[in-house]
């Protein structure tokens, strides 16, 4: 197989939550592989837009708050208008709330479930409708977590949402494979982003986590590039419903 199976030339990718962190790393990797990129989020992602431009690709920013799924159809329509279609969707935007389960509030539950699972489902549905109408197949990549596999502690809504993401990835893969749409997930291990700032600032937890990662370091957003391009490209056309850990060996321990 030639490396051209990994090329994303002529493809349009929609990445949610790409102003920072893992979303930014994945958007830049997709642009480097040849895709034009639509970014969806609450804040204008200046740094990511500049990186896409430097890679010589087109980009478009859609301002939207993904804590509600109301705008999903408009988001897809705007991307189609600006960049022509949607071939690849990366459902990255996500939040975490930490509290003892005994004290966990309805707000802490709903906010995480809405952004991490409810909007992810309805945006996938809206993108898949566009992919089916365009008849070019498609690739959906959901961002799962180590807590799709493990229970975690003090993060009940996060664990529920990310375990849901892993299950939903299989359901959607089963239903949409016959339309040439691959639905898969990536489960990042422990990466240095805003999402893990509190953990890294806690000396005890930081040392515990680092001591358990065979690679001996926190992940860098660029570490997700290879898996993302693989799952977005025709190199993965016969890969369906998997959740691929990119974790420096965390789950192997
Ligand atoms: P991050 O730096 O906090 O980035 C999260 C992104 O999601 C930001 O762009 C954020 O935008 C966006 N977002 C959150 N709520 C949103 C909303 N209501 N509407 C629109 N955008 C919203 O965290 P990250 O570590 O890169 O996380 C990205 C994904 O990876 C998440 O799904 C997270 O659960 C997952 N993950 C992270 C790790 C890790 O170790 N870092 C491990 C496993 C999984 P704003 O700037 O507007 O908030």
TrEMBL record:
Catalytic activity: 2-dehydro-3-deoxy-D-gluconate + NAD(+) = 3-deoxy-D-glycero-2,5-hexodiulosonate + NADH + H(+)
GO MF term (any one): NAD binding
Keywords: NAD, Oxidoreductase
InterPro entries, sorted: 2-deoxy-D-gluc_3_DH (IPR011286), NAD(P)-bd_dom_sf (IPR036291), Sc_DH/Rdtase_CS (IPR020904), SDR_fam (IPR002347)
Enzyme class, first EC level, given as a word: oxidoreductase
E.C. no: 1.1.1.127
Protein family (similarity comment): Belongs to the short-chain dehydrogenases/reductases (SDR) family.
Entry protein name: 2-dehydro-3-deoxy-D-gluconate 5-dehydrogenase
Organism, scientific name: Microbulbifer rhizosphaerae
Lineage: Bacteria, Pseudomonadati, Pseudomonadota, Gammaproteobacteria, Cellvibrionales
């Amino acid at each position: 197989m030639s490396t051209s199976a990994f090329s994303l030339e002529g493809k349009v990718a929609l990445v949610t939550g790409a102003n920072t962190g893992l979303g930014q790393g994945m958007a830049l990797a997709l642009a480097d592989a040849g895709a034009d990129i639509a970014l969806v989020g609450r804040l204008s992602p200046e740094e990511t837009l500049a990186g896409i431009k430097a890679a010589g690709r087109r980009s478009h920013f859609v301002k939207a708050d993904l804590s509600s799924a109301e705008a999903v159809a408009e988001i897809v329509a705007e991307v189609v208008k600006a960049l022509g279609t949607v071939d690849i969707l990366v459902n990255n935007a996500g939040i975490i709330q930490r509290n003892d389960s005994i004290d966990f509030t309805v707000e802490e539950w709903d906010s995480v479930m809405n952004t991490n699972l409810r909007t992810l489902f309805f945006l996938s549905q809206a993108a898949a409708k566009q992919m089916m109408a365009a008849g070019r197949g498609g690739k959906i990549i959901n961002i799962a977590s180590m807590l799709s596999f493990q229970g975690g502690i003090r993060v009940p809504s996060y664990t529920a949402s990310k375990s849901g993401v892993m299950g939903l990835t299989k359901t959607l893969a089963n239903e949409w494979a016959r339309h040439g749409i691959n639905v898969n997930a990536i489960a990042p291990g422990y990466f240095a982003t805003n999402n893990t700032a509190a953990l890294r600032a806690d000396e005890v937890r930081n040392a515990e986590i680092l001591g358990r990662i065979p690679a001996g370091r926190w992940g860098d957003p660029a570490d997700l590039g290879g898996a993302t391009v693989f799952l977005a490209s025709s190199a993965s056309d016969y890969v369906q419903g998997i959740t691929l850990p990119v974790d420096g060996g965390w789950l192997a321990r």
